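Re: weekly structure request thread

Next one in the queue (449 aa):
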Amino acid sequence: MQRIEWIKRLADFIETALPSVCSMDELSHYVGISKAHMQRQFKLATGLSIGHYIRNRRLSRAAIDIANTDKSITDIAINYNFESQEAFDRAFRKLLGITPKSLKQQPSLANNLSLLPLTSKYLQLFPEIEKIIPQTVTIEPLQLHGVLQRYKRFQIDTQVEFDNNIKAMWEKFEQITEHWPVQDRRHFTLECRNTCSVNGDFTLMAMRTGETLAHPDLISFTLPQQQMLSFCLTSNSDTTEFLTYLYSVYLPKNGLHIDRLPILWESFENGDLHCNISVSKWKTLTPPKTLNYLDEQLFFLPSLRGQTRHKGIPFDKEQTVQRLEYLFGYWKSELANINIDNINEAKVLLIGDDLDKPFTPEFEFHSQLLTMTRNTHYDDDLVLPACSYLRALLTGTLTEISQSIEYIKYCAIPEMPFYSVHGYDILLEATPLLNKRYEIQLLLPVKKR
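Done, posted below.
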């Protein structure tokens, strides 16, 4: 029997047995191969030990149960043969980048978190994918122009539709760029996901460098210089199988996780595709110098009521720094008045859309200046419900402050006893300093785990 054939049979047998865990003796007997040979060949063919593969599948299936059933996390941990909920929590967080309790609060994320079972195609492509040695590269600042498309969460059974949508996005971009000046250009597909995308929605952008011609659907922005890990995929590689390898094998094996978006896919005329990702070691992250203070205790803000002035943010401001620059430019004359020293005369800047509306990727593209109406209430007042927040003090340029905000949301909060919830980011203070620097006090809505 060919190796790919019996390993696929073995993976199917493991899947059928879950949540029960098969012993090595059972697996060896099932495929008719000695335990030592079976374990050695499985790892050579997949990059994973049988034990690690079974653990990954247990955690992935547990994630689906957390999201789709009313069972308690403790019961699910026991059902999937973890010795304690604490052990389950640690393993779950390390593999999937989120705690079980956070997933319970945001169940539709399970569609994006689960690592898929082994497929014959993965087994066929693994020897070539494993040979890809990533290089640490410095991506110089890029001025990019292109179109964007927002997508609902991706599931494997919708892959054909998803691929067709991406193809349609690039066809639209080709039409827009048909008469652009002929010159050497670089071609990118960018994957972004806003912090509000608890439902798994995300954004892809078809982008190019170089000179442009005006078009109403065209967006432009600059990516700052950054150090990234670059994987070169040949035309024979499959991105789905590569991503399975990246998340199941490479990142866990090297103790890494993706710490910042966007992911940059750069395509070349010879068919090569470079996947560029920003990564960090687990639990070796150091807070940015611009983060002066991050409160370890929750900050409780009582209910506020007042009149608001709304300002939307253009949807091409995909990066945190772009949205901050736009807000600080538009609300420049009001920044000095933002304070909450006197609750009856407070003025704060809310970042986010109406909380009563459905949660969408556009949530972060809205702002509202809330002015407390002292002793007077109006029918059109906005009532901000009482909520607990994580309080941060930051000092630096808007670029530096944006990096600190991303650090808090994507790196610090997952390691703290809190999880992010739907709500406004609230700017309590914004003091201009010299050299285009600011001192700001920011509240981020969270709850205790």
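The longest strand covers residues 256-267. The chain has three domains: 3-107, 135-281, 291-448.
Next request, please.
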